[in-house]
Specification:
Bound molecules: NADP nicotinamide-adenine-dinucleotide phosphate
Strand content: 5-15%
Order of helices and strands: EHEHEHEHEHEHHHE
Helix content: 40-55%
Strand order of the largest sheet: 3-2-1-4-5-6-7
Number of helices: 8
């Protein structure tokens, strides 16, 4: 009897790093569920590209900033092929803002998607895994900014630091169920999230100078590391793998952004 294909759910897989991970897992023979929020046409294009590799693919929509939607996504994804072996919590939002300019909406926006969305989806999938007595592997895409605080990143960095911490607690609590949980702290990678930086030659030069490899990474370079861990891990959990061209080894980059909001207390 041939062994059933493994299945993966990748969030934010309509573009960027998530798309590259979804495609890489498909080349390794996994059936893949492509999650997206807005980009239905792009998600469908990823589904078609995955099928070219002779595996199954499906697209599911959810706004992960809403806990009920994250939980519903988990149940729906589990139901597509009767189980999930691999979950990649990749979807995220990121932008810079001066500490003094952060609003409650900014902080909620980062925490709701980057931390709470990942938590409630992961909890839903892990509950199914535990109930059915099957193990699995979960990867969370975090950021070097969740490990080393960055200028303009007090809210974003905190949301990724929260995710880093959650990964490690979950790794301990899920290990008895043979569910491994690891994080990938990503550095500067060429995607829509930082297109603005790459359009400014001076800023780009400054950022590149802070990276030992001297350049941004490519989504496919991150995907190769994530997929190889997901396909091979048996005894690895609670780890943070940095995929950053050496960025974390350096002193950091970024000048203090100007404070733009008038002091509302005076
Ligand atoms: P990207 O190209 O901007 O893609 C972001 C993805 O997240 C999209 O697929 C988007 O879905 C999804 N998403 C955003 N808000 C969502 C929400 N409320 N609900 C559900 N999905 C949502 O970003 P990326 O650069 O590939 O980033 C992927 C991950 O890597 C993120 O967690 C990011 O923080 C992390 N990261 C990236 C870098 C980098 O330099 N690129 C560095 C460090 C960490 P739709 O397109 O369908 O809306």
């Amino acid at each position: 009897m041939t062994e059933a294909r493994k299945t993966a759910l990748v969030t934010g897989a309509s573009r960027g790093i998530g798309k590259a991970i979804a495609l890489q897992l498909a080349t390794q023979g996994l059936n893949v569920i492509v999650h997206y929020k807005r980009e239905a046409a792009e998600a469908e294009a990823v589904v078609q590209a995955i099928r070219q590799h002779g595996v199954e693919a499906a697209a599911l929509q959810a706004d992960l900033s809403v806990p009920e939607a994250a939980i519903a996504l988990g149940h729906a994804a589990w139901g597509v092929w009767g189980g999930i072996d691999v979950l990649v919590n990749n979807a995220g939002v990121s932008y810079k803002k001066h500490f003094l300019d952060n609003t409650p909406e900014d902080v909620d926006g980062f925490m709701n998607v980057n931390y709470k969305g990942a938590l409630f989806l992961m909890q839903t999938i892990a509950r199914h895994m535990v109930e059915e007595g099957r193990g699995g592997s979960i990867a969370c895409i975090t950021s070097v900014n969740g490990i080393r605080p960055g200028i303009g990143l007090s809210a974003y960095g905190a949301s990724k630091a929260a995710l880093e911490s959650m990964v490690k607690s979950a790794a301990m609590e899920l290990a008895p169920h043979n569910i491994r949980v690891n994080s990938f702290a990503v550095g500067a990678v060429e995607t829509d999230i930082n297109a603005g930086v790459r359009q400014q030659p001076e800023l780009l030069q400054e950022v590149n100078a802070g990276i030992p490899m001297g350049r941004f990474g490519l989504p496919e370079e991150v995907a190769a590391v994530v997929s190889s861990m997901l396909l091979n891990d048996r005894y690895m959990t609670g780890s943070t793998i940095t995929v950053d061209g050496g960025l974390l080894l350096m002193r950091g980059y970024g000048k203090a952004a100007p404070y733009t909001t008038k002091d509302q207390n005076t």
